[in-house]
Design a protein that fits this description.
The complex is a heterodimer. By secondary structure, chain A is an all-alpha fold. Helices cover 75% and strands 1% of the residues of chain A. Chain A has 14 helices and two strands; from the N terminus they run H-E-E-H-H-H-H-H-H-H-H-H-H-H-H-H. Chain A has helices spanning 9-37, 57-67, 71-78, 80-113, 116-127, 134-145, 150-157, 171-196, 199-207, 212-223, 225-240, 244-249, 257-267, 271-303, and strands spanning 40-41, 48-49. A two-stranded antiparallel ribbon of chain A has the order 1-2. By secondary structure, chain B is of the alpha+beta class. Chain B folds into two domains: 25-252, P-loop containing nucleotide triphosphate hydrolases (Rossmann fold, 3-Layer(aba) Sandwich); 260-395, Beta Barrel (OB fold (Dihydrolipoamide Acetyltransferase, E2P)). Helix content of chain B is 26%, strand content 33%. In chain B, helix 3 (116-126) crosses helix 4 (131-144) and helix 3 (116-126) runs parallel beside helix 5 (160-172). The two termini of chain B are 43 Å apart. The chains are: A mainly alpha, B alpha+beta. Chain A binds chain B through residues 198, 200-201, 203-211, 214, 218-219, 222-223, 302-304, and chain B through 74-76, 95-97, 101-103, 105-107, 109-113, 122-123, 126-127, 154, 156, 170-171, 174.
Chain lengths: 304, 396
C-alpha cells in the first residue's frame, strides 16, 4: 500500500528549489575547485594547466583529463607546513569552542531564567554587536590591545604594570577575538534549548530528592545537549576555517589553515595547491557536519 | 500589665515549637498558613488536619489557592506565615528534596531523556539505595501500575494513560508519607479517567498511604476522596465527606458550587412553623415558590433572610401530584408549572419547569423503565413536589 502523497505539484517544485540552490552555488563551484586542485601550476592566465576547452573537440578534452593528477594532495601530506596548519586550526577551533561553551552556557542559562520581558532585552544585548561590521569590531580590538592602546593605558594608569604589555600578535589576543566574535552563535542555540525546558522537570527532580545542583546535572544538562551540540558545531566549523581574526590578532609564527590557503592563493599564486587545501578542509569539516545531521535526525525521531 | 503576665500571655500565644507526636496529633496539620503573591493572598490563614491513611481532596474553582496549598506541602512554595506540621515536625521551611512527601505532577513532568525504568528509579538513586534494592523496588512499582514490558520505553513512546502510570509509580517509589496529586487525571479522556479513579482508590487502600489530590472536577473528588475540602479565595469553605458536602452544604456558595441545585430566597415565617405532622418544620415564605416547608435545621438560624435549596433529583414530577391525604397535604411541598425544557442524558432525564411565578425549577429523574411511559414533554403542565426533608435551609 502506498502512502497517499500530500505533495501537490507546486509543493514538489518548491521542495526542489533548495536543491537547485545548493547545486548551483555549492556543487558547481566545488566542482571547479576540485578540478583546479587536480591541475598543475603554470605561468599563464589562468595560472594552471590543463584548461578544459570543449570547443577543441573530444581528443583535446581527453588529453586534458589525462593531465589531471593527485600531485597536490601528495604535497599536502608530505609537507608538514600543511599538516601543522590543519592541526593548529583544529586545536584553535577546539579550544575556542570549549571556552565559548564555558562562557556561553552560564549566560544562556541566566537568560532563560530571567522574567519573560527581560529575556527579550537580554536577547537584544546579545545580538546588538552584529549591527556593527565584524571587521570594524576586530579593528577596534586592535586599537584596544595595541602597544599604546586602551588596555595598556588603563593598566599603566592603575599601576598594575610598569611597562606596556604585548597583547597584540599573541594567541591570547586571537582567542579573545574569536570568543568575542562567536559568542552569540554559542549563546543563541543554548538559550533556545534552555528556554524550552519545562520548569516542572526541575521541581520533579527536587521532589524526588535532588538538590538543585544535582538536578542541574541530572536534568538540565542532559536535556540541553542538543543546544550544546548545535552551538559547538556552529562555532567549531567556521573557526576551523577562520582567516581574518588570526591574521589580524595572532602572531605570524604559526598559521591556521585559512591563512595558509590565502598565502598559497594570493602570495604564491599556486591555485592548484590552494584548491587542494580547500578540498581537504571541506572533507575535514564534513565529519562534524555529518555528526550534527545524525544527532538532529535522532532528535527528530525522538520527538515523534 | 506586669512582666509576668506579659510573658505568660506570649507563651500562651505561641506554643512551644518542640515537636511532640501526641496521640491526637494528625499526620499532617496545616496551621493558619498564609501565602501571598504580591498583594494577592493565594492562601489566607488556612488551617486543616489530615489524618494518616486518608484520601483527601482539595476542590475549588481555578485560582482558589488549592494548587498553591499543595505546592506548599511539596515545598515548592514557602508559607509567609503559619506552620505545616508533618508527624509533629514543622516542615514549612524544609526544601522539597528533604521532605518525606512526593508529588505527582499535573502534566506528569516525566524526564524525557530517561526511560520508564530510570524515571521510576530516579528518586531511589537519589536516596542512595543499594542497586539490588532499587531493582526490586522498580520491579515492584512497575507491577503495581501494570507497566510490565515497557521499562525500556522513553516517555514519548508511551500513551497518555501509560505516562500517567509512570508518573504515579515514580512518585510512589520512595514510599512517601504523603502523596500529593496535582490534577493527576486531567489529561486523560473520560472513560480512562473513571477507571483510573477506581484504581487510585484501590491503590491508596492497599498501600495505606495518605493521598492528597487537587482537582477542579467535583465528580472526581467525590469518587476518590474520603473527605473533601472546598476552597475559595484562599480559604476552606467546608471540609466534609462527599455526602455531607452534597446533602448538607455549609453555605449557599458551596451548594451552588457542588452539583446542581434549585435555590429560592425567602424569610422564615415564625407563626406558621412548629410541629406539623410529626416532625418539627420551618415555614419559609419564598418570593418565587410560595411557602416552602423545610425540616428544621439542627443549628438554629439567626438570620430570618434565608435560602431554600433543593437538589434537582429530589424534585419529582407528576401529572396530578402525590396521592394526598390530610397529613401528606400539609407535609409535602407542591409547585405547579409548565415543562419548558427536556434533556435526555441516557440514565437520567432533566426537566426545566417554569413555575407560575416565572421562576424555573429543575428536576432530574432516573429513567428506570426502558419505555418512556412516564416521560413529560415540553409545554406539559405538571406538579413538581418534594418533601421538607429534602430541602436545605441556608443563610443568605
Amino acid at each position: 500500500m502506498s502512502a497517499p502523497s500530500i505533495f501537490t505539484r507546486p509543493a514538489r517544485l518548491a521542495a526542489i528549489v533548495p536543491y537547485l540552490w545548493m547545486a548551483l552555488f555549492f556543487l558547481v563551484p566545488f566542482g571547479f575547485v576540485l578540478k583546479i586542485s587536480l591541475s598543475q601550476t603554470a605561468i599563464a592566465q589562468p595560472p594552471y594547466t590543463p584548461v578544459f576547452d570543449l570547443t577543441e573537440g573530444w581528443e583535446a578534452t581527453e588529453a586534458a583529463l589525462a593531465a589531471l593528477s593527485l600531485d597536490n594532495f601528495r604535497l599536502l601530506v608530505s609537507d608538514h607546513l600543511y599538516i601543522m596548519s590543519y592541526l593548529r586550526s583544529l586545536l584553535v577551533a577546539g579550544v575556542s569552542t570549549a571556552i565559548l561553551l564555558v562562557i556561553g552556557y552560564p549566560i544562556a542559562y541566566g537568560m532563560a531564567r530571567l522574567p519573560q520581558r527581560w529575556q527579550s532585552v537580554a536577547m537584544m544585548l546579545v545580538i546588538v554587536p552584529f549591527w556593527t561590521s565584524f571587521l570594524i569590531r576586530i579593528y577596534a580590538w586592535i586599537n584596544i590591545l595595541q602597544h599604546d592602546g586602551l588596555l595598556n593605558q588603563a593598566l599603566l594608569a592603575l599601576h598594575l604594570v610598569a611597562a606596556p604589555v604585548v597583547w597584540l600578535s599573541t594567541d591570547a589576543a586571537m582567542y579573545l577575538g574569536i570568543v568575542y566574535s562567536y559568542l552569540p552563535f554559542m549563546i543563541l542555540p543554548l538559550y533556545a534549548t534552555l528556554a524550552k525546558l519545562d520548569p516542572a522537570l526541575l521541581e520533579a527532580a527536587g521532589d524526588l530528592g535532588s538538590s538543585s545542583r544535582s538536578a542541574f546535572w541530572l536534568v538540565t544538562f542532559p536535556l540541553s545537549l542538543p543546544g550544546i551540540t548545535a552551538g559547538a558545531l556552529l562555532c567549531f566549523i567556521p573557526i576551523v576555517g577562520e582567516f581574518v581574526i588570526p591574521d589580524l590578532l595572532a602572531g605570524s609564527d604559526s598559521l591556521m589553515i585559512g591563512q595558509t590557503l590565502w598565502l598559497e592563493f594570493f602570495t604564491n599564486k599556486d591555485w592548484p595547491a590552494a584548491s587542494a587545501v580547500a578540498v581537504v578542509l571541506l572533507l575535514l569539516l564534513l565529519a562534524p557536519l555529518l555528526l550534527y545531521d545524525r544527532l538532529q535526525r535522532r532528535q527528530l525521531e525522538g520527538a515523534r | 500589665m506586669t512582666e509576668d503576665t506579659a510573658k505568660a500571655a506570649t507563651e500562651a500565644d505561641s506554643p512551644k515549637p518542640e515537636p511532640q507526636a501526641a496521640a491526637d496529633m494528625p499526620l499532617l496539620r496545616i496551621e493558619a498558613v498564609v501565602k501571598k503573591f504580591g498583594g494577592f493572598r493565594a492562601v489566607d490563614r488556612l488551617s486543616l488536619d489530615i489524618g494518616a491513611g486518608e484520601f483527601f481532596a482539595l476542590l475549588g474553582p481555578s485560582g482558589c489557592g488549592k494548587t498553591t496549598l499543595l505546592r506548599m506541602l511539596a515545598g515548592f512554595e514557602t508559607p509567609d506565615q503559619g506552620r505545616i506540621l508533618l508527624d509533629g515536625k514543622d516542615i514549612a521551611q524544609v526544601p522539597p528534596h528533604q521532605r518525606p512527601v512526593n508529588m505527582m505532577f499535573q502534566n506528569y513532568a516525566l524526564f524525557p531523556h530517561l526511560d520508564v525504568r530510570d524515571n521510576i528509579a530516579f528518586g531511589l538513586k537519589r536516596a542512595r539505595l543499594p542497586r539490588a534494592e532499587i531493582d526490586t523496588r522498580v520491579a515492584e512499582m512497575v507491577a503495581l501500575v501494570k507497566l510490565e514490558g515497557l521499562e525500556k520505553r522513553k516517555p514519548d513512546q508511551l500513551s497518555g494513560g501509560q505516562r500517567q502510570r509512570v508518573a504515579l509509580a515514580r512518585s510512589l517509589a520512595r514510599r512517601p508519607q504523603v502523596l500529593l496529586l496535582d490534577e493527576p487525571l486531567a489529561a486523560l479522556d473520560k472513560k480512562l479517567r473513571e477507571s483510573t479513579q477506581l484504581e487510585l482508590m484501590e491503590l491508596q487502600r492497599r498501600l495505606g498511604l495518605t493521598f492528597i489530590i487537587v482537582t477542579h472536577d467535583q465528580e472526581e473528588a467525590m469518587t476518590v476522596a474520603g473527605r473533601i475540602g472546598v476552597m475559595d479565595l484562599g480559604r476552606l469553605e467546608q471540609v466534609a465527606t462527599p455526602r455531607e458536602l452534597y446533602e448538607a452544604p455549609a453555605s449557599r456558595w458551596i451548594a451552588e458550587f457542588v452539583g446542581d441545585i434549585n435555590l429560592f430566597e425567602g424569610q422564615i415565617e415564625p407563626g406558621k412553623s412548629g410541629h406539623l405532622a410529626i416532625a418539627p418544620r420551618l415555614a419559609i415564605a419564598t418570593r418565587d415558590a410560595g411557602t416552602i416547608l423545610v425540616a428544621e435545621p439542627r443549628q438554629p438560624i439567626a438570620n430570618t433572610n434565608v435560602c431554600v435549596a433543593i437538589r434537582p433529583e429530589k424534585v419529582k414530577l407528576s401529572r396530578r401530584g402525590p396521592a394526598s391525604d390530610a397529613t401528606n397535604a400539609q407535609a409535602i411541598n407542591r409547585l405547579e408549572g409548565v415543562v419548558t425544557d427536556v434533556g435526555y442524558l441516557g440514565g437520567l432525564t432533566t426537566y426545566k419547569v417554569k413555575l407560575d411565578s416565572g421562576a424555573v425549577l429543575r428536576s432530574s429523574m432516573a429513567n428506570t423503565a426502558r419505555l418512556d411511559l412516564d416521560a413529560y414533554s415540553t409545554s406539559q403542565r405538571v406538579v413538581a413536589w418534594f418533601t421538607p426533608d429534602d430541602c436545605v435551609v441556608l443563610e443568605q
